[in-house]
Design a protein that fits this description.
Number of helices: 15
Strand order of the largest sheet: 10-9-13-14-1-15
Mean pLDDT: 94
Order of helices and strands: HEHEHEHHEEHEHHHEEHEHEEHHEHEEHE
Strand content: 15-25%
Structural class: alpha/beta
Distance between the termini: 19 Å
Largest sheet: 6 strands, mixed
Shape: globular
Amino acid sequence: MNIIEEILQDIPIPKMVKVKQNFQASELENVAAAVRETLDHNKVLERISQGDRVAIAVGSRGVADIPVLTRETVAAIREAGGEPFIVPAMGSHGGATAEGQIDVLAQLGVTEETVGAPVNATMEVVKLGELPNGLPVYMDKYAFEADKVVVINRVKPHTAFRGQVESGLMKMITIGLGKQKGAEAAHSFSFKYMAEHVWEMAKITLAKAPVIFGLASIENAYDRPAKVVAIPAEEIEMREPDLLKEAKALMPKIYFDSIDVLIVDELGKDISGDGMDPNITGRYATPYATGGPDVKRIAVLGLTKKTHGNANGIGMADMTTQEVMDEISWEKGYANALTSTVIDVVKLPMVLDTKELAVKAAIKSCNAFDLKKAKVVRIKNTLDIGEIWISESLVAEARQVKEIDVLSSPQELLV
């Protein structure tokens, strides 16, 4: 037994109870039909002329049904006489290489075979202009040289800043289509000014590039499409703020304001840009965004397979395991951190030999008055919080929350 095991051997791990959190869950019954309906209703396909080469910008996040959204947009554009192709619109993601970005799309289910259009990837950009403060505005070379451009993205709260628009169409136009150079420029003055810069840089792109419309989706608390809307390019600036309000109203949450220890089974870029969404954990890498529970300690026990070693966000954890450390490809997270200029996300948490020791270390250091009654919550990841586990000490509080159903008796925590 080593010294760490000796220190932690008597730390109690509470029994846990499975509970179901119930959220508002409006959901589209037929996503493909909804895409076709909104494209027709808003008459955006009329902007395509016979033979137009149409670049469709698709990002790197785990947008629900992104293959369906893309496939239906491709088919509709081709029926309108256009020649569609896909461009990755993900800033520096995928290791900031064209091949890496093609692979990211493939992992999301977006390939020529699945969506019916070729994927043309490059990290080359065209400079469109600059802000009064000197920040340059870039755009993917293939997209800029296309006759028309369409942008597909989910609208949701950002993980590091607050503004009229956060994650959505305007951010994809600015940072996603700006590739690594555009992402670097947008982040260079920190997230303190991100809301302002995304807004102003997107306006330049919309004025100088052939963007004709955006297809925006909003997801419910269970990560399913609740709404899809096609927005003409000249209306994006006006309409996206209202979509963001709708998205925030549908966001899931952990129904406990104060948590001593949050156990996260898996972290990954396919879950959130920050590995685990701070809107859920309450743990932010910048001071420019707030919300979520007050969590004393976070223990991360694993990485998702789809993150391929990118542990961006691990720095927001307090404890993790040696197994997680062995899986990390640091250069991937470093590329994201250097581009965004937010480096806390790739700092090292305390590394323990086992999952059990990581949980015990989190409990020991949480400063609860009685460690036997520590308020512990365990989730699979920040996208999957419908059913979670809570310690016995939280059951009484849970029974007072009408959105929570208690599903099990107390059980030993298996780690």
